[in-house]
Amino acid sequence: MSILTILEFPDPRLRTKAQPVTTFDAALKKLSDDMLTTMYEAPGIGLAASQVDRHIQLLVLDVSEEKNAPMTIVNPRILEREGTQTCQEGCLSVPGIFADVDRSDRIRLAAQDVAGNPIELEADGLLAVCIQHEMDHLIGKLFVDYLSPLKRDMVRKKLEKQRRHAESSATASA
Ligand code: GNR
Ligand code: NI
């Protein structure tokens, strides 16, 4: 299992639209396993292939308390939405930033598993939020896109500053 590098905002590669998965082979299974390892290590509750610079419609998640319910979802399509919920979201590609986002409360989903078998899924609560957040990544969208342009620019500056500080402390300890 390998830890993959997670792209960070405002990296333009995060804006790439993911292509449908057509080949369900050992390489896809390995990517899914590596993404789960990367997600657990981060730690996060979801990860989209776009975030590790692989632009295919693949996402992994685990919203369980015990971190023992990994899921891999391929080629997801939302069939039905109901209601609205607001959740404070974060993103491994926008580290240290949290903001409220409105999402559908309940969704029904058609997708495939990592072997290519069709699956249908109903989700609510945090699972529904996480799936919608990951599906946004697959179309090149980030949760900060729901903020005003002014707030998004503040986020960009805060991340630049965080990176400068990380850089100078790395140099200081070298
Ligand atoms: O780890 C994550 N937590 C989270 C919290 C609220 C709403 C969405 C998420 S997803 C995020 C991991 C991530 O960036 N996935 O793309
Ligand atoms: Ni994210």
Write the layout of secondary structure elements.
Layout (H helix, E strand, L loop, with lengths): L25 H16 L4 E3 L9 E4 L9 E19 L9 E14 L5 E7 H14 L10 H25 L1
Antiparallel strand pairs: 1-2, 2-3, 3-4, 4-5
This protein binds ligand GNR and nickel (II) ion.
Can you characterise this structure?
It contains three helices and five strands, in the order H-E-E-E-E-E-H-H. The protein is an alpha+beta fold. A five-stranded antiparallel β-sheet has the order 1-2-3-4-5, sandwiched between helices. A hairpin with a 5-residue loop joins strand 4 and strand 5 (118-124). The two termini are 29 Å apart. The structure holds ligand GNR and nickel (II) ion. Ligand GNR binds next to strand 1, strand 3 and helix 2.
Name the overall outline: globular
Q: Note the run of SSEs as H and E.
A: HEEEEEHH
Tell me the strand percentage band.
Answer: 25-35%
Count of distinct strands = 5
The low-confidence parts are none
Kindly state the percentage of residues in helix: 25-40%
Which ligands appear in the coordinates?
ligand GNR, nickel (II) ion
Give the termini separation. 29 Å
Spatial strand arrangement across the major sheet: 1-2-3-4-5
